[in-house]
């Protein structure tokens, strides 16, 4: 199912700048029992994305009403909202583009995530590196070509996820998730000021760690930092908190911090 500006359509104009240039952003959300988990955080992300990209804000109230109407009755699923600058003429200039287009799609929930959460996953270290882009750091823009190529690399390696570094050999994230690791009493997560996505679940986990009085440090760290970790996990809005049991040749136990975070997520939505 898809809605475009509230209308049931399954296509966009070929002049849409999201199609032509990736000129837009999006968020992906978990739907449970007819409501979106952490909707306010997702809405804030969409609003901040428009502000940073200079996209005219759509009618958020109309979007919210349409979303709530379409997900009513869904026990478990995924909702995705894309916002594009709309249609424009030839060339990069966004001048005169004020007819913002929002697109809502619904899809089934990935059935492998519950098993990942309980059993953990083994991940590889991706060979390809992502570039620094402070202009877009933290944003989930429609330009995901780096992630497409990384996902292709995972497919070729028959791997489910991977750890990604940038061209300076600094840890950034997983292919489709944010990255955390614990050493002793301190939890670390990559500094995203030069690149990467500041995920809604990342923010939730950071707040939970603060409430647990666990020291959290955002760092620019090399891959070797993971070899000294005692717990490693990945997060996104759909998978929640997924423990990592192996990175390359290094194995990890599923620790108490991961299990506590998972328990908190069951009640803190």
From TrEMBL:
<comment type="pathway">
    <text>Cofactor biosynthesis; tetrahydrofolate biosynthesis; 4-aminobenzoate from chorismate: step 2/2.</text>
</comment>
<dbReference type="Pfam" id="PF01063">
    <property type="entry name" value="Aminotran_4"/>
</dbReference>
<keyword id="KW-0289">Folate biosynthesis</keyword>
<protein>
    <recommendedName>
        <fullName>Aminodeoxychorismate lyase</fullName>
        <ecNumber>4.1.3.38</ecNumber>
    </recommendedName>
</protein>
<comment type="similarity">
    <text>Belongs to the class-IV pyridoxal-phosphate-dependent aminotransferase family.</text>
</comment>
<dbReference type="InterPro" id="IPR050571">
    <property type="entry name" value="Class-IV_PLP-Dep_Aminotrnsfr"/>
</dbReference>
<dbReference type="InterPro" id="IPR017824">
    <property type="entry name" value="Aminodeoxychorismate_lyase_IV"/>
</dbReference>
<keyword id="KW-0456">Lyase</keyword>
<dbReference type="InterPro" id="IPR043132">
    <property type="entry name" value="BCAT-like_C"/>
</dbReference>
<dbReference type="GO" id="GO:0008696">
    <property type="term" value="F:4-amino-4-deoxychorismate lyase activity"/>
</dbReference>
<comment type="subunit">
    <text>Homodimer.</text>
</comment>
<dbReference type="InterPro" id="IPR043131">
    <property type="entry name" value="BCAT-like_N"/>
</dbReference>
<keyword id="KW-0663">Pyridoxal phosphate</keyword>
<dbReference type="InterPro" id="IPR001544">
    <property type="entry name" value="Aminotrans_IV"/>
</dbReference>
<dbReference type="InterPro" id="IPR036038">
    <property type="entry name" value="Aminotransferase-like"/>
</dbReference>
């Amino acid at each position: 199912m898809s809605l475009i500006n509230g209308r049931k359509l399954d296509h966009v104009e070929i002049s849409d700048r999201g199609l032509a240039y990736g000129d837009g952003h999006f968020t992906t959300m978990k739907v449970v029992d007819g409501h979106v988990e952490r909707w306010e955080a997702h809405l804030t992300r969409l609003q901040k994305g428009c502000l940073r990209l200079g996209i005219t804000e759509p009618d958020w109230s109309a979007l919210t009403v349409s979303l709530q109407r379409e997900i009513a009755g869904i026990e478990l699923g995924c909702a995705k909202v894309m916002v594009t600058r709309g249609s424009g003429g030839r060339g990069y200039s966004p001048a005169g583009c004020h007819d913002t287009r929002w697109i809502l799609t619904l899809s089934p929930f990935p059935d492998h995530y519950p098993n990942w959460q309980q059993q953990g996953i083994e991940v590889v270290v991706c060979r390809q590196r992502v570039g620094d882009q402070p202009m877009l750091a933290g944003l989930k823009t429609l330009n995901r070509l780096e992630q497409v190529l990384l996902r292709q690399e995972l497919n070729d390696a028959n791997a489910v996820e991977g750890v990604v570094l940038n061209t300076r050999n600094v840890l950034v994230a997983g292919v489709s998730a944010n990255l955390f690791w614990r050493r002793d009493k301190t939890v670390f997560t990559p500094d995203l000021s030069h690149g990467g996505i500041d995920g809604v679940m990342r923010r939730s986990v950071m707040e939970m760690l603060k409430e647990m009085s666990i020291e959290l440090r955002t760092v620019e760290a090399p891959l070797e930092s993971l070899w000294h970790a005692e717990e490693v996990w990945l997060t996104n809005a759909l998978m929640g908190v997924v423990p990592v049991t192996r990175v390359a040749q290094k194995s990890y136990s599923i620790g108490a911090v991961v299990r506590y975070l998972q328990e908190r997520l069951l009640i803190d939505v």
